[in-house]
Amino acid sequence: MLLAMKDEAGSNLNDEENDFMLDNSFGDETLEELTAAEIHANKDTIERILKEKDKIESEFFKVENEKLIIQHEIQLAKIAFKEREDRYLEDIVDLEEKLRTQ
What we know:
By secondary structure, this protein is an all-alpha fold.
């Protein structure tokens, strides 16, 4: 009723009227109780988000570590391949030299 009267008059509710409306619209729960409940719910949500963030970061660092290991293994394989290729080419040169000297 108060809200309808204020609306009809084209005016806004003041702080006291706002508190009165809130107290009446939520029954026995006061604004402080509703605020405390909302804060508690927000804390739970934040804690859940932070745990999920930690889990995601942990998985990210595992993947990054695996990536570094793979890159290192690839580098070692390239070096080993190059060494085998060099030995093969040296063997060819040695064989050609032997053929020429015979």
